[in-house]
Write a structure and sequence with these properties.
Elements lengths: L6 H12 L2 H7 L4 H15 L4 E4 L2 E4 L1 H21 L12 E7 L3 H16 L3 E7 L6 H5 L4 E4 L10 E8 L1 E5 L12 H6 L1 E5 L8 H6 L7 E6 L2 H9 L4 E5 L11 E4 L7 E7 L7 H16 L2
Helix pairs in contact: 1-2, 1-3, 1-4, 2-3, 5-10
Length: about 300
């Protein structure tokens, strides 16, 4: 069975309301002949005359009377569905948002973000999941609503991205560590025992590339998958962790931090989402809070 032309619902609604082909044509800005053709199509589709002549006017058939209120409601519901979304009622909003975040984001920005969301929308829950890679499939298939991290080659071309902040690496050691005193030169830094951070388990990165022209090489004692783990190890040992400054603020409490003695590229941390959620009012509200929290915490 073929799908009927749903535009005919609007035509039928107006015809039944006006009871006149001429008046219905003016209301829909059609010619009388076009409206007559539309009425003919409606008669064919419903297998009913719908409007029949009575003197100089038209009167509805029993079938038309049966359809009138139903069709009117359908047209109103359709128009409402296509209107722009109304103002968001945050106090009544019940929704769970899944955020896939880069390492250290939750520990550093999560408390403020959760508090802000809870204050404005008590029915909203934030679900944070780990980010094992930069694959955009979770954003594409809707299992993740928002993501933070560095835009890379594997980021889907359709994914929306908005810069949150720029970050750079610093060195971190426990209080009382030899590097917590005195000037830190490239050779002094390189001679220490280091923690490598890599989700893929590689033992070289931007810091090693910066040391290489100076003829220096770090001794990577262990490799871990995240910055929070690196800091936990550094806090309890003489190992050196090199981590992004802004993303690890809370994690570094009570530790000694120092600028790296070599220059490394800055990282642009972005907020990522799929374009189908661009106009979603609740999603836009949450994106605004993520941006505000990241701007407020230095």
């Amino acid at each position: 069975m073929s799908m009927p032309d749903l535009n005919l619902l609007v035509t039928l609604d107006v015809l039944l309301a006006e009871g006149s082909v001429a008046r219905a044509a003016r209301r829909l800005r059609l010619s009388p002949s076009a409206m007559s053709r539309a009425l003919a199509r409606l008669r064919e589709t419903t297998a009913d005359p719908l409007l029949v002549r009575a003197g100089r006017g038209l009167v509805p058939t029993p079938r038309a009377l049966e359809l009138r209120d139903r069709v009117s409601q359908l047209v109103q519901d359709g128009a409402a569905a296509l209107r722009p979304a109304e103002k968001l009622d945050l106090q009544r909003l019940v929704r769970t948002f899944t955020l896939r975040t880069s390492d250290g984001f939750v520990e550093n920005f999560g408390p403020q973000l959760i508090a802000r969301v809870r204050e404005e929308a008590p029915g909203v829950r934030l679900r944070f999941v780990q980010k094992p890679d930069k694959d955009s499939t979770p954003l594409r298939d809707g299992t993740v609503d928002l993501e933070t991290g560095v835009v890379g080659k594997t980021t889907g071309p359709e994914v929306r991205a908005q810069a949150l902040f720029r970050d750079h690496f610093i060195g971190v050691v426990r209080m009382g560590h030899p590097l917590s005193h005195g000037k830190i030169t490239p050779s002094r830094y390189a001679r220490g025992r280091h923690i490598g951070v890599s989700r893929r388990g590689v033992d070289k990165g931007p810091i090693d590339e910066a040391l290489n022209p100076l003829g220096l090489e770090r001794e990577i004692v262990t490799i871990v998958g995240g910055f929070s783990t690196a800091l936990a190890l550094a806090r309890a040992s003489d190992l050196i962790a090199s981590v992004p400054e802004r993303q690890t603020g809370n994690l570094r409490a009570g530790m000694h931090c120092f600028p790296l003695p070599v220059s490394t590229p800055e990282m642009a941390i972005s907020l990522l989402w799929h374009p189908r959620l661009d106009a979603d009012l609740a999603h836009r509200w949450l994106r605004g809070h993520v941006r505000d929290v990241c701007a407020a915490i230095r």
